[in-house]
């Protein structure tokens, strides 16, 4: 991406889909502590994931029934895992247009290192801006106080850029951010 306008346009598309997906998810009335779009180290189009306290309790109990590991230990292990959440890739089919927009971008695999880094950075900036837009609208305070939610943009496998983005999207002193920094930050 060459311009700020291109990043803002892509961010608006991501935010539009994520807004609908998160709003639909939040209709269940659960108390969320983690919301993220995530991507790969190749910069693929994002999917979203989220955890609520209620979902964590259900999933830990379900996994405890299938193993000899205590539910509390399981909860600690999966608490910040986008992939273990029952809400991983929530309404992923709604992101088809965003996926097409990402495929229409320059193919990261075919770019030289400097161009690759710029393109990857632009994609992450668009995702971060999308989450900031939703946050500014009050999206993440729908079922709980905003400071109770860690709003992220994550690269998988985990990368230190995740922490840098998290610190920009959340108040460092918020309880959710403090917990994430202590338990999951790269």
Textual characterization of the structure:
There is one protein chain. This protein has 186 residues and is α/β, with parallel strands linked by helices. The protein has one domain. It has helices at residues 4-26, 53-65, 71-78, 96-104, 113-136, 161-169, 175-183; strands at 32-40, 47-52, 150-151, 154-156. Strands 1, 2, 3 and 4 form a 4-stranded mixed β-sheet that branches. A hairpin with a 6-residue loop joins strand 1 (32-40) and strand 2 (47-52).
Quick summary of this structure?
By secondary structure, the protein is of the alpha/beta class.
Key descriptive features of the protein:
about 10% strand, alpha/beta, globular, 4-stranded mixed beta sheet, about 190 residues, 7 helices
* Overall strand count: 4
Strand content: 5-15%
User: SSE string, helix = H, strand = E?
Assistant: HEEHHHHEEHH
Which residue ranges are poorly predicted, with pLDDT under 50 across at least 5 consecutive positions?
A: none
Whole-number tally of structural domains:
1
């Amino acid at each position: 991406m060459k311009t700020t306008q291109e990043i803002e346009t892509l961010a608006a598309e991501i935010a539009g889909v994520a807004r609908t997906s998160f709003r639909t998810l939040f209709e269940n009335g659960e108390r969320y502590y983690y919301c993220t779009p995530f991507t790969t180290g190749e910069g693929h189009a994002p999917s979203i994931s989220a955890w609520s306290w209620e979902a964590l309790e259900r999933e830990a109990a379900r996994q405890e029934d299938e193993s000899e590991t205590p539910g509390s230990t399981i909860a600690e292990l999966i608490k910040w895992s986008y992939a273990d959440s029952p809400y991983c890739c929530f309404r992923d089919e709604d992101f088809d247009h965003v996926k097409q927009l990402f495929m229409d971008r320059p193919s990261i695999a075919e770019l030289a290192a400097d161009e690759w880094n710029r393109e990857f950075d632009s994609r992450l900036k668009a995702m971060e801006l999308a989450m900031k837009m939703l946050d500014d609208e009050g999206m993440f305070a729908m079922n709980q106080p905003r400071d109770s939610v860690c709003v992220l943009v994550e690269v998988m496998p985990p990368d230190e850029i995740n922490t840098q983005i998290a610190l920009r999207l959340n108040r460092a002193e918020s309880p959710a951010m403090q917990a994430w920094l202590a338990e999951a930050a790269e």
